[in-house]
Amino acid sequence: MNDIQSPVFAVLVHYPIMDKHDRIVSTSITNLDIHDIARAARTFGVRRYYLVTPIEAQQWLARKIISHWEEGWGADYNPNRKEALGLIEVKPDIGQAGDSIKRSCGAEPIWVATSAHRYPNTISFDDLRRAIWSGSGRPVCLVFGTGWGLHHELVLDCDFILEPIEGTGDYNHLSVRSAASIIFHRLLG
Description:
Blueprint (H helix, E strand, L loop, with lengths): L7 E6 L3 E2 L5 E2 L5 H14 L3 E5 L3 H15 L1 H6 L1 H7 L2 E4 L2 H12 L4 E5 L7 E2 L1 H10 L5 E6 L6 H6 L2 E3 L13 H13 L1
Helix pairs in contact: 1-4, 1-8, 6-8
């Protein structure tokens, strides 16, 4: 296979998110999501991983966690972690993540929402993989949700919705960390 033609970015959205009662909420930044998704992103060549939350205290927390591993004792103790967490940028909204991608690549990204549900405009893993590896060179941004998933309007605002990861039965509620790792592997591995 040739080199990747379209750089891949990831966004982990903490608002607008759905709760189990189908209400719009903001979810909390978690240490595990920060570390595990960054490590998977670095492993599979994701260019940048954005954490999106409008809550300033959550932005501060994310930056505090990241800085622990990028500077001082944490950086010395685990240089691999430093390298992975160096991919992260904290943004207050998805629009600012998109602006950062446009500045980096000179083009609007192709937005691809992830979901455990099927929507109109679903794209298969195979088709998206082909687009990334032999596509136009336009950046691709994978949009991940926390809680009970991305708000439906945000999903429908994306250019495509990636087909759900399916297991052997009808249970389909993976952690976002697990889903991101599987998706990165299927598209970039």
